[in-house]
Amino acid sequence: MREAVAASLILLFLHGMFTGKKLSYLLAWSVIVLGIAFRIVIYCQNRNLIIDEANIARNVVERGFAGLTQPLRYEQYAPPVFLWITKLNTLLFGTSEYAFRLLPLLCSFIALVQLFFLLKKVAGVKTAWYPLFLMATGWIYIRYSTEVKQYSSDTVVAMSLLLLSINVAVERWAPWRFVLLWIVAGSMAIWASMPSVFILAGVGLFYAAKVWRLKNYKALILLGIIAAIWLLQFLLYYAYILKPEAHSDYLQNSHKNHFLYLLPVNAEQWNYNVNSLNTLLTAIGGKWALSIALHLICFFTGAWVLLRRKKAEAILFFVPILALLLAAARHDFSLLPRVSLFIMPLFLTVMGVGLEALFQIRFPAVKLVLVAACLVAMVNFNELASLAKPMRFERITESYPWIEQRRTDEKIYIHDLAMPQNIYYTTIHPDRRRWSFMKTATYFFWNTDMDSLCKTVQGKSFFVYGLLEDWDWKRSEETFPKYFNLLDSMTNETNRTFYFAPKQAVN
């Protein structure tokens, strides 16, 4: 705490030495550079692909550009534009992890810069360094800047639409140019990012509020035409790509703890809703009581400022948030933090508006407390420790040389939660020939009868597991001692590999 207070005093001292604008720009761009450098380091750590990434990679490699417009296989979803650019990257740069993760990385750079300009336009730059720091160093922002999923590109599309709305004044554009611009921008957004529809709802009502205030009622017809074209494309997109998977049992079960009750009727349902929203809030800026309190104060202050002074901008920001909550209540969209990453810059921007307003209070003690609270929250939230201890979510390739050193002609069994990664590293990855012996592995599944499987094992064998639920692992853990003697094992945070001999073979 003393360090935070000292740092806050230093910042206030610097604020007195420089003009507010110079210090604000210096801090903001320093944080952006830090965030970009941090992402490059994590990208260069080149961790193994996780199951979803490997399955996206399989779809991209197995299909042409036209095929990527159809529903994906292996329980995956990604928008066509994201898949096309990823496909192009693999054609240009190969099929390594670096090539597959290049688009999310670049999008994460763009998102940081976009957030600065959004804060500058809506909130001001005096306190922009704080929401920028959260995005620059927070765990969820860092992880999905280097993962083969569309969440970073969703964020860029969302902020692009917000910035375009704020900078394109309907009253200053020729009607035909305005209509053409938004038909093109909205159409590109829909095919590049499914949750862009939430942002477009805000965009449409933002402009409607503007033209209504200007009494330019004819422009409402133009907005109606634009909205109809957007809606038609989204319905086509939904029916052709999303609908086959949107309400599948797999997705509903995966996201069941991240929906909402539309009209909670008892304490249990209210608690469920609060916990779901709290999970999202803590992903945005931290799980500590101080962080939550600070962010809620800043957010609601920012909401109050926008509703009083910038009503159209309030519509632009709050309609997407409300639409997301409604979709979560209908089980059409999840509040799972990674899926809702696109909405986080909206929260950060509104929070920035509130923090900027709080900094206008003319009492140095208030500024001192605010800066100290921000610094404590920053210390608790940032993921800078990953610079020293690399992020690891799957480490299947560490088992390959371990198996190779012990293997002669033993059979290899791989659990299905490690299957997509094994397929990627043995059939798609540039080093696939090095691990070709793993291609002959036999896969078994979560519902496999482990007793029946173990009875069929004739000689020494390897069993490879990825990250799986405790109940799934327990089945194997209870079965293996009945049939095998353990010769050797290798485990890490995410993978388990065992070298067994049947008991009768040893005896």
Brief overview:
By secondary structure, this protein is mainly alpha-helical. The chain contains 22 helices and 5 strands. β1, α19 and β2 form a beta-alpha-beta unit.
Description:
The structure is a single chain. The chain is mainly alpha-helical. The chain has two domains: about 1-385, no CATH class; about 395-505. About 65% of the residues lie in helices and about 5% in strands. It has a five-stranded mixed beta sheet. β4 and β5 form a beta hairpin.
- Structure annotation, total helices: 22
Spatial order of the strands in the main sheet? 2-1-3-5-4
Radius of gyration, Cα only, in angstroms? Answer: 26 Å
- Average residue pLDDT: 89
Could you tell me how far the N terminus lies from the C terminus, measured between alpha carbons in angstroms? 63 Å
Structural class: mainly alpha
Order of helices and strands: HHHHHHHHHHHHHHHHHHEHEHEHEEH
Helix content: 55-70%
**Total count of domains:** 2
Q: Segments where pLDDT lies below 50 for 5+ residues?
A: none
**Topology, number of strands:** 5
- Globular, elongated, flat, extended or rod-shaped: what is the shape? globular
Q: Biggest β-sheet, characterized?
A: 5 strands, mixed
Strand content: 5-15%
